[in-house]
């Protein structure tokens, strides 16, 4: 699948790191480094603008290494970029650690997964079919 992109950053376009990778690493496009303090959140620009085909979305997800090693994660994970959005892709990061974290330009700060989706049409009914789980909620399926 081809996706139209404008790259206004000084970084190369995101690329899959391995043949089996689902996500493309997104890099910060910053004029100056940002010192992200503990419990602080920030929008990190990427300099990327996309035109996704209808029926697709881009999901913005944390990078596992940043999350595990430094407590840096995507706050609204996964963030959703709709097919009709044309603005700059920005990453909402939060520092959940007790130490500041320096974000430098070109740093890989998140990953993006392109996913197919459906739009639904509501069908109002008076009763739902029974299932094995039925109305069992949180923890109802055991450990």
TrEMBL record:
Its cofactor is Mg(2+). Coiled coil: none annotated. Residues 12-142 form the dUTPase-like domain. It is an enzyme of class 3 (hydrolase). GO terms for molecular function: dUTP diphosphatase activity; magnesium ion binding. Substrate binds at residues 63-65, 76, 80-82. Its EC number is 3.6.1.23. Keywords: Hydrolase, Magnesium, Metal-binding, Nucleotide metabolism. CDD domains: trimeric_dUTPase. GO terms for biological process: dUMP biosynthetic process; dUTP catabolic process. InterPro entries: dUTPase, dUTPase-like, dUTPase-like_sf, dUTPase_trimeric. Pfam families: dUTPase (PF00692). Pathway: Pyrimidine metabolism; dUMP biosynthesis; dUMP from dCTP (dUTP route): step 2/2. It catalyses: dUTP + H2O = dUMP + diphosphate + H(+). Belongs to the dUTPase family. This enzyme is involved in nucleotide metabolism: it produces dUMP, the immediate precursor of thymidine nucleotides and it decreases the intracellular concentration of dUTP so that uracil cannot be incorporated into DNA. NCBIfam families: dut, PRK00601.1. This is Deoxyuridine 5'-triphosphate nucleotidohydrolase. The gene is dut.
